[in-house]
């Protein structure tokens, strides 16, 4: 089983990095093949220019994007790890979808509407927030973020989301709570293994 982990956080010592490491180790312990794409360490360019947009439309995909698409094609599981900034994902992650999940690769349009081309793939999402659950859930911000990602991107491209795990108040938790949350990450990965 092949797993591609995509991390979007600028600090290599962040809690997001720790989540990424915990998930990676858990998958490796299960003998899965794991590749990791750390978008900030890669200096991934998230900007979709008009020139690039036209090339995508003409199916002339740049070499750097072809490499990312090759990894996605290889993967059975996609794992996304990122913080919540301004009620959404970091710009570098959004730009990853803008540039990598292209028309003709991740989806295509038909007379009946969009068709996801990444069917058969599954995804896990680990999303951290600086705010507590009691602040985000009542106004349905958590639900809106989850719908935008799980339905607006994953389902649109044919990818089945197995779990979208929110980890709340990460900037204010103590070391013991951090460990508890990392164990929850491992439990989510364990759940995936049991479904195979």
Automatic annotation (TrEMBL):
CC terms in the record's Gene Ontology section: cytosol
Q: Does the keyword NAD apply?
A: no
Q: Chloroplast: is it a keyword of this entry? A: no
Q: Which UniProt keywords apply?
A: Oxidoreductase
In this protein, which residues make up the domain named Flavodoxin-like fold?
A: 1-186
* One Pfam family this sequence matches: Flavodoxin_2
Give the top-rank taxon of the lineage listed in the UniProt record for this protein: Bacteria
Q: Name one GO molecular function term.
A: NAD(P)H dehydrogenase (quinone) activity
SUPFAM superfamilies linked to this entry: Flavoproteins (SSF52218)
The family annotation for this protein states: Belongs to the NAD(P)H dehydrogenase (quinone) family.
Name assigned to this protein: Flavodoxin-like fold domain-containing protein
- Native species: Metabacillus indicus (Bacillus indicus)
